[in-house]
Amino acid sequence: xxxxxxxxxxxxxxxxxxxxxxxxxxxxxxxxxxxxxxxxxxxxxxxxxxxxxxxxxxxxxxxxxxxxxxxxxxxxxxxxxxxxxxxxxxxxxxxxxxxxxxxxxxxxxxxxxxxxxxxxxxxxxxxxxxxxxxxxxxxxxxxxxxxxxxxxxxxxxxxxxxxxxxxxxxxxxxxxxxxxxxxxxxxxxxxxxxxxxxxxxxxxxxxxxxxxxxxxxxxxxxxxxxxxxxxxxxxxxxxxxxxxxxxxxxxxxxxxxxxxxxxxxxxxxxxxxxxxxxxxxxxxxxxxxxxxxxxxxxxxxxxxxxxxxxxxxxxxxxxxxxxxxxxxxxxxxxxxxxxxxxxxxxxxxxxxxxxxxxxxxxxxxxxxxxxxxxxxxxxxxxxxxxxxxxxxxxxxxxxxxxxxxxxxxxxxxxxxxxxxxxxxxxxxxxxxxxxxxxxxxxxxxxxxxxxxxxxxxxxxxxxxxxxxxxxxxxxxxxxxxxxxxxxxxxxxxxxxxxxxxxxxxxxxxxxxxxxxxxxxxxxxxxxxxxxxxxxxxxxxxxxxxxxxxxxxxxxxxxxxxxxx
Amino acid sequence: xxxxxxxxxxxxxxxxxxxxxxxxxxxxxxxxxxxxxxxxxxxxxxxxxxxxxxxxxxxxxxxxxxxxxxxxxxxxxxxxxxxxxxxxxxxxxxxxxxxxxxxxxxxxxxxxxxxxxxxxxxxxxxxxxxxxxxxxxxxxxxxxxxxxxxxxxxxxxxxxxxxxxxxxxxxxxxxxxxxxxxxxxxxxxxxxxxxxxxxxxxxxxxxxxxxxxxxxxxxxxxxxxxxxxxxxxxxxxxxxxxxxxxxxxxxxxxxxxxxxxxxxxxxxxxxxxxxxxxxxxxxxxxxxxxxxxxxxxxxxxxxxxxxxxxxxxxxxxxxxxxxxx
Lengths: 564, 325
Known about the structure:
The structure holds 2 protein chains of 2 kinds. By secondary structure, chain A is mostly helical. Chain A has 2 domains: 1-45 and 338-556, MetI-like (MetI-like fold), CATH 1.10.3720.10; 53-336, MetI-like (MetI-like fold), CATH 1.10.3720.10. Chain A is 72% helix and 0% strand. In chain A, helix 1 crosses helix 12 (246-272) and helix 19 runs antiparallel to helix 20 (469-497). Chain A is globular, with a radius of gyration of 25 Å. Chain B contains 11 helices and 13 strands. In chain B, helix 2 (33-46) links the parallel strand 1 (25-29) and strand 2 (52-56). The longest helix of chain B has 19 residues, at 304-322. In chain B, helix 4 crosses helix 11 (304-322) and helix 6 packs parallel to helix 11. At the A-B interface, helix 11, helix 15, helix 20, helix 22 and helix 23 of A face helix 1, helix 2, strand 2, helix 3 and helix 7 of B. Chain A: It is found in: Cell inner membrane; Cell membrane.
């Protein structure tokens, strides 16, 4: 170290230890505890009972099958939209893109509820149109295919966003060279665009696969009625038949989910290896293809897909909220606003859930913002092994399904905290801590990339003029990274607002989130109330996204991810 | 951007200032949301100085939540208002309940409450047969559900999700001529058991299935709203649960909790249940609209002590027949 000054490493001595302690609490402690309980279960032979349990294997099978099918569906829809909206001159790109990203922001159990209302013999919508299937027809969505289809719809936007980022940087000269040599559009697409966009497709597939394995809302509403259990819903049912062995069983089940997710990510790594296409020249392949007459085929196709993904389920949801009783056809005569009145003015849980979800989301976003600015500073200024390890520890909870993190935190916080003798289990704080852990990585990414673009000379100059750490932080760094930080706050807020997987296990009296409230209303047979609350949530999400859209002009490029 | 951050900061500040639980009583109940809210609203109107927060879930699930909280050393609930006396009897034996002699008990049949005052029945909920009005057969007995006309069209709540369903299975299993064999022949006839009573209601009202076992008030109430469903009290008789109320020994608000017990047992509280479409447990009350005369309803007996002893075995037997988790 003698005679060697690290540039810009003038952080206060407490900074890196602070980051390390935060990461220890949020990532290492819960996962270590989960591993311990799992290993203890192994040691006591309890694991043999779990592993010998047929329900574990059928749930593993259903988890993998639905996730693979769901990933394929999301790839087909996501790629179609990404290629058409990025590479062609199709009309109405902005609108199409906005609508296409919407399903991602809507809680999965709302999506499931809407689709159930849309199909099957009971559908108020189909009854109103008198095309409902006859009595005794099974609800087609209560099946492996139904779960996979909704996974596909829910996660197609993830594929779209991942692929789009790659397509934006395609080299234009490659395409033009091929064109000048007389290659047909199809040839250009097959030989140049497809190979170059493979990394994006693979990344999208991996995100989609991991999200499917951890999804709770969709298999809970579509799978449980047909006795199809995936690992997350099996964990949930284990908790609803609580015995002394539950914690051990659940730890083992969580480990299985974690293994499936990690396997998915490893396959992604293998697939991406050796696919490092450095491209030279101008990037930006916007509108490389002219659709010509094909426009009349593709434009209606995209709008039709959007109609089935968004409009039809939403109208079904509204119809489900307006029927006076389940199974009554909806007409102007039978229409009633009872469900909305009950939800808005009588049910205390509505207000509780809105307050809880919004304040949890705000608290998560703001706490993480503070921590990520400091963490990003520490991690980008120290480029050593320690900081790389810390970075990957932050990544782990995000890449594991939420239910695994929820179980870990129950194990850590079920007993009262030593020395303080308070128990956080059953309070809102346990949900907040689990959120902080799960969404840390989401919040960190944009801030770290902003730090990488900072010129250290600015801070250096301030330091030479004698400015202290906080002075430099507030006067120089924060203003420069503000746009990226704003983006990370909004992203975390939206994700946390619609979360169900974590809170489904951690809620208690007075700490219901919106996701829990909707699931519970539906579970008690009040699907009209569940639909009414879902309609309100969808409207809230649309308003938030519109606000983002309005802000987009003032935010740096790439923050609002569905815009060009 | 600044406005967003400051607005969010305000939100967070208000969030930190308000404790998550401002209520002084927490009720765990298995009533549907609208009914739970109506019960709590009625109580709060009568006792404006007490606030009640409530959580609703199926009885087995709510018990699981409670057990998890007890293990964590932090039981949140003060009161339970759940499906059946058997579950509360078990809690009483585990020493988890608080004894309270309510003055209202004088108006109740002695079989409907615990002599030591650990729990009190609040209403009578029977389980019978519900069918969709467009179904071909009009079932009149439990046996009818095993007929070929009902093949693949029968659904019932799972005892893993509903307390009433467990008592129902235990009651029918003890009836000569029905027993577990009846459940086996139902399964052979393609019957399914999943979810709670709410799921059965949805499934029949929507026509996914035609026949189902379900608690009485749901279909009777929905029929009044215009849903295409009918409810029958089968000829062999019906099982019944009584939705008892009990106070947890760990409560920090015993006085308020006692007031709640008095309220649900009082004439006013019972009137409230009547309005919601339940048969009140209190003597000398009317029956809700759409029910036959009380003396025509044949309630099958159940031995609470046996039911308690056999619960785990019966759940295994049921899961074995229906292959649910």
